[in-house]
Design goal:
It is globular and about 80 Å long. The strands form ten sheets. It has a six-stranded mixed beta sheet, sandwiched between helices. Among the domains are: 81 residues, no CATH class; 281 residues, Rossmann fold (3-Layer(aba) Sandwich), CATH 3.40.50; 89 residues, Immunoglobulin-like (Sandwich). With 736 residues, the chain is of the alpha+beta class. A hairpin with a 4-residue loop joins strand 38 and strand 39. The N and C termini lie close together (12 Å). Helix content is 15%, strand content 36%. The chain has ten helices and 39 strands.
Amino acid sequence: MPRAAFVALAVSMATAVLTGSVPRAAPQERPQQPPVFRTNTELVEVDVVVVDKAGQRVHGLTKDDFILKDRKKAQSIETFTEVQRSIERATELPRLPPETRLDVASNTTAKSGRLVVMVLDDLHTYRGRTDTVKGIARSIANDLGPESAMSLIQTGGEHGVEVTDDRSRLLGSIDKFKGRRPTRRPLEVCDPIAILRDPETADASNLDPGCEIQELNANRGLYRALEDAAKILGRDDKRRKAFILVSENVAKDISGLFDGGEQIANIVSRNPRVAAPVYEYQLLNTMNAMRRGNVATYSIDPRGLISPQELAEECFPPPGGARGIDHDPCVGDEVKGSPTAWNAWVRKAQQGLTIMSEETGGFAVVNTDDFTGGISQIIGDLDNYYLLGFYPSDVNGKGYRPIDVEVKGRPELTLRYRRGYQLEGAPDPPKPTSELNRLVGGALPKNDLPLRLQAIPMPPGPAGGKNARVVIALELTVPTTSMKEAESDRLLDDIEYGMYAVDIKGAKVRERQSSGAKVTLRPRPGLVVVPDKVTYEIVSEMPLPPGQYQLRASATSKKLNAGGSVYLSFDVPDFSKDDLQLTDLVIAYADGPHVPIARDLPPVTMQTTSREVVTRGTVPSISRPSAAVPPTLPVPVPTIPFDPTLDRAFVSRDTLRLYFKAVQRSAMALTATISALAPDGTVVVTFDRVLEAGTQPSLDISLPLTQLAPGPYRLQVVVTDGTNETTREVALIIRP
């Protein structure tokens, strides 16, 4: 790995820090929210999957092969792209096991181009099928691989995961899934208030008591979760988006519900004694949100194959005290050979998943035990599709607009695409907000400015307290040409960057930091060929209490006239909780940083707020001017002894520097075992080291990579005191 082509001549910074817990929905936060994207005169894009009779995807079609109609009128296809991600997969290095935690986030990889939200419907899942849902969800997380950024929602509102490329976080949430239905029988849609079955009869025996509150909340919870997620995904984002919904759904016939767009079909009466179709309105609102956000839904029913003979078992206990097939509305007429096969509650639930999925451009995996095949087909859809774009000829009016797409002269082909879209009129004027806030306001990071991010929680300092010292490394990459100055070999830029630590459980911005910097870089002496891009890293710190966080970082480059953002999910442990704990592993190049690094540390005293860069060899750091610091003041002790690298791909001739701390209640002798593991768990290299006694002993060693062949590895550290043991890992790749 080559050393840095440029060194930092100067990086001067001005920093503003805001601390405290600020709710995301607080009134003072609203001006910082990004504007909501709505389809208007902008390009309307439609993802179209084309398959033949055998279910194989059809490739090689051109724009001229398609006919696209908006409200039955043919439209000019202005943009056209065929996406085949299977070609990209063939060039990848072998993958690490999905349970391996990723400690560095990037906004520049293929992961950022597609977002999949896995929705696990615990509210409607029979608790006896908990393990089945977990198995399906694990397969989805594992098989989708690193090509998709993913998030996870459980409809009960617990154990959700923010958008991440870290499969270990998804798998951790999946392990906590529990089905909440005590019986196999599907939930039926009922009204939230008591009504008379026959409005013309006042006989109390005709009274329908309505839903129990938990049933009503379960039905609302499923579709509100989908609606809220679709609204977020639709904000100023045109990337490929999909829900994968694992649900037993609701026993309700929704045939024809979506045919009228915003209208509810067949409202029976305005009689005040007849409840409004609350469920239908909620479901239609959900569908409209998915249409606006261009979100395809793929559904999987974890019940698997249900034969006619198994319908009675799936309807036990019978609803309303019904006894026997002849009197059990949940079973329907299928078992008696009636052609009315879809009036059983299970069939209504399966058909509902199918209708909802097909309306959005997806499909449903129902009434089959082949979950593996279904997941493979879903991935095939996400990897292979055509992207068609058109400008609506008529932008007057709002509401639902049906879309029809076909391939000329190929009626045997099956096309999957969203069946309509909605115009909302002109978007609201953008509310006042800083560019740094806007860049972190979406579901996915912005990648116009390439960024990488790492957060390393370390135990509290000598003063104690609950707050961990979180070391943050933010790396920026910009084109060399954008920073060049006329008649000078120096590269100049003005940047601003911000850090936002969001407490995931409390939905609060726990702490913010914003900084501005003037960057000056010069070529390393002897440099002959100037690289196309220059990368530099800024290291700072943020105090945070224990909790689960998503760190959102944004940066803008004045010279590049562009900005970017990057998101990283991480945990801050309570270092006072256990007898023995281990910090994250910090790695760097043993021969020094390979990119220019500036360290943005807090001042030693409040006498002055000025900061300047002093040079240690070729690596600048930010510190107090020595002349302004009285000799009696202590020199700040670095939280970690060196600046980390965000690289995770190396070559065998590299030597790494590894650092970590152990935290224990009592100063006992500790032994650390450092190993390099292959993806299958095979130990390739291992050795032991003894840590010096203390409550926070550390280890700082060099690791030559000469014994590692090209491929992925887990660098693992296991520390034990003879009774307690703790482990940390970091993923590495050795390139050829």
